[in-house]
UniProtKB/TrEMBL annotation:
It comes from the Bacteria. The keyword Disulfide bond does not apply. Keywords: Membrane, Transmembrane, Transmembrane helix. The chain crosses the membrane at residues 12-31, 43-66, 78-95, 101-121, 141-158, 178-196, 208-230, 242-265, 277-299, 311-330, 342-368, 374-394. This is Cytochrome C oxidase subunit I. The keyword DNA-binding does not apply.
Length: 400
């Protein structure tokens, strides 16, 4: 019998590795290291997104939709092939950046993700195909595949126009947008509907249809927010703003469904899980509000000039929305025990880090200097995140 808890532990191991690389990056302003900063960034981002989130999400999808179908053998092949590609990226990106071997392993990872998508869509039982949860997850997988157009184009762009080209940056943003906002966020929403469906709590069809298409159109249109740093076009601002509004509409519909009295959330989730998802919900509103603000020409230009705003937004989505939601579902499905002390330490590290990153961006915007010891505090926030993750993997050592 396959122990999927071990798969989640492995995903958490990747997250700890990414957090350590993040701590190393935060320490570059304090200590001298014989490493290439950009190479570490590449390793940090790839292992965080593909090691932690991808492995975590695909493990959940297999457990919830396919584990009863007798497909363990084929899933193992996909899983271990994926691990080879991830370890390959882990031992190449931090030392050589984008070069032959790191590109080979990242390309093989794309093949692994296509393999999993085909495997999943092919084998989902007919009874689940009609559910709201599956509709969200199916589109999430479509966005994951769609996002891979960005990496495929990077090689062509680098060989023809170079890494300084506008198209190089657009290809990266295309990939990140449909990874974060399409694949990851929509898959997590699908998992939330799955949790409700297991208790026979079904969102009304009309309400779901409005939510679903508002969310998906919003995902597509908000990509244009990633293009506003190129020579301005009011049409792109309008499309991005419409996308942000549509996503806010979808989120309001979801909240309305939760609060409408169709069910009591306390009968579905534990107190900790409700608290964690409440944080996720607040962060989603902040994220979508930021998207709406950056559709305005002044703020879109500001976000493109001040890198800290972009980094803060990406970390808010990854560490806040996606990671805390993953913690919630791992805890709910008993794949990873989330201790209160470890979770509290993670949330504290996250909010401290976000506050410092946005503070530095605001300082650059308004023209005042950062306080003495800023980089030391930022490194301490990263250290707190790292320690909290280690305590999740080794709960007997740290206790609760």
């Amino acid at each position: 019998m396959m122990n999927l808890r071990n798969h989640v532990h492995l995903a958490l191991g990747y997250f700890i590795t990414a957090a350590f690389l993040g701590l190393l990056l935060r320490s570059f302003q304090i200590f001298e290291f014989p490493f290439n900063y950009k190479f570490i960034v590449h390793g940090h981002s790839h292992i965080a997104l593909l090691g932690w989130v991808y492995v975590g999400l695909t493990t959940l999808l297999f457990k919830l939709f396919l584990v009863q179908e007798g497909l363990n053998r084929e899933y193992r092949r996909i899983f271990w092939f994926t691990q080879i590609t991830l370890v390959g990226m882990l031992v190449t990106f931090p030392f050589q950046g984008y070069a032959l071997f790191s590109i080979v392993f990242s390309t093989l990872f794309l093949v692994a993700s296509y393999w999993f998508t085909w495997f999943f869509v092919k084998n989902v039982p007919d009874g689940l195909r009609r559910t709201s949860s599956y509709q969200c997850i199916r589109f999430a997988l479509i966005y994951m595949v769609l996002s891979s157009i960005g990496p495929w184009l990077l090689g062509i762009i680098m060989n023809t126009m170079g890494s300084g080209s506008v198209w190089y940056r657009l290809a990266i943003y295309f990939y990140l947008h449909f990874q974060y906002n399409g694949w990851m966020v929509l898959a997590l929403m699908g998992l939330f509907f799955y949790v409700l469906e297991q208790r026979n709590i079904i969102i009304p069809k009309k309400m779901f249809t409005t939510f679903f298409w508002s969310m998906n159109l919003g995902i597509v249109f908000t990509f244009f927010l990633s293009t506003l740093w190129i020579p301005p076009s009011i049409v792109l601002n309008i499309l991005g703003g419409v996308g942000a509004l549509l996503q806010l509409v979808a989120l309001v519909i979801l909240v309305k469904f939760i609060l409408a009295g169709y069910f009591d959330l306390k009968n579905v989730l534990s107190g900790f899980q409700i608290k964690a998802l409440s944080i996720v919900l607040v962060l989603l509103f902040i994220k979508m509000g930021m998207q709406l603000v950056t559709s305005l020409p002044y703020f879109s230009k500001l976000a493109s000039i001040i890198l800290d705003f972009t980094i803060g937004y990406l970390h808010l989505t990854f560490l806040g929305v996606i990671t805390i939601a993953l913690f919630t579902f791992f805890d709910h499905f008993k794949l990873l025990e989330i201790g209160n002390k470890a979770f509290t330490a993670f949330v504290m590290g996250f909010f401290l880090s976000e506050g410092l990153i946005f503070y530095k961006g605001i300082a650059a915007w308004l023209g005042f200097g950062i306080f003495d010891g800023y980089f030391e505090f930022l490194a301490l926030a990263s250290l707190l995140i790292f320690v909290s993750l280690v305590s999740l993997l080794l709960p007997k050592w740290f206790g609760d």
